[in-house]
Amino acid sequence: MNFNYADLMASLRLMGQGMLGIFLVMAIIALIVYLITKIKK
Amino acid sequence: MSFLLEGFMAVTWQQLVMYAVGIILIYLAIKKGYEPSLLLPMGFGAILVNLPFSGVLNQNIEGIGEVAGIIEWLYDIGIHASEAMPLLLFIGIGAMIDFGPLLSNPKMFLFGAAAQFGIFFVVTVAVLLGFDLRDAASIGIIGAADGPTAILVSNVLKSQYMGPIAVAAYSYMALVPIIQPVAIKAVTTKKERQIKMAYNPANVSKGLRIAFPIIVTVIAGFIAPTSVALVGFLMFGNLLRECGVLNSLSEAAQNMLANLVTLLLGITISFSMVAESFVNVQTLLIMGLGLVAFIFDSIAGVMFAKFLNLFSKNKINPMVGAAGISAFPMSARVIQKLGQEADNQNFLLMHAVGANVSGQIASVLAGGMILNLVPQLLK
User: Fold this and answer.
1) Domain boundaries, chain B
2) With a CB-CB cutoff of 8 Å, which residues 6-25 of chain B face chain A?
3) Is B310 exposed, middle or buried (0-12, 13-18, 19+ CB in 10 A)?
4) Could you give the ipTM of this predicted complex?
5) CB contact under 8 A, A22 and B374
6) Cα–Cα distance between B201 and A27 in angstroms, integer?
7) Which of B129, B219, B373 sits opposite A28 (nearest CB)?
8) Touching check for B68 and chain A: CB below 8 Å?
9) Segment B52-84, tens digit of pLDDT
10) Full domain range(s) for residue A13
């Protein structure tokens, strides 16, 4: 176990890209569900 | 007569520690009711694999050669080679989930996303503590509050800490009713916990219920292709439930399949609890980091709800954000209980259930994102 600066940078990129990816997928799904519900009405 | 004493003579202090760990897991399962279906087989398995010259592990016997052990074989076939066990369990879990409360209030999808923050926060903390990125990402996924996802991700990333990760994931899932109230109360005022939310669910059509698992799989597949196995099997189980023409298969997935795989998964994962690789300082660090992940998941969910309240006319009770973790239905129950504690006329259960099932989708997505991104970052 040794601290590695490159891994730290990678982990921060993982945080940014990972959270963005999850929010993006969830937001798209939410939007589609919302639109389908509206159209059905 | 010395052969009768060989086992006693060969036992190490690390193996004795593992017997104690096994007994504690069995105690927690039986006496406290903490995830008994997983902790009990894991506890018993921890004893089995740590008996000297244990026949459940592959042995090289003089004069005979290598003899296969059942737990090592199950591990090789069911987890290491194909991740079949955690994936099959997802079919059962998908068949158990009713996404109705989420589909009737799509805003709740965002809470599931927000409450995955603890995963990524802990990855960074683990790197700061000296774990390499693959192990750190595997440790972070404890925050998905989803045992099968934690096992699958740590296996794909070839983490050497799968045993402690699985134990931490399942233990903290069971401890959600203790962890979450402390975390939530630390970042909310009583006035915020008293916020009432009207529940006017939109009617969810059968067509939407059937289309939903297909939509989720396709979108997740395009954006994070590595998540397809996780999301796809979860959603396949849900499609079995919602299609309305495969009731017997849906029931088989919810009961027989889920029970059988859970039973085998618990005892199989104990292969990663062999004393030499389990009894060390890193295990203690991983247990601590798992707790941090759960706490920061809850805090992030609460803070995201507070953030949305800055722009919203109809205020959201910030505690509902904390239900965005995957531990279902414990987390939703915790939020309902805390809401009633603050005001006995405060009914948050259905909102919390919506956020909670959204967390189940978000947690497998988080696993998929990690599997997608970590290999790219390691290039």
Assistant:
1) 2-378
2) none
3) exposed
4) 0.94
5) no
6) 19
7) B219
8) no
9) 988 888 887 778 888 888 999 998 898 888 888
10) 1-41
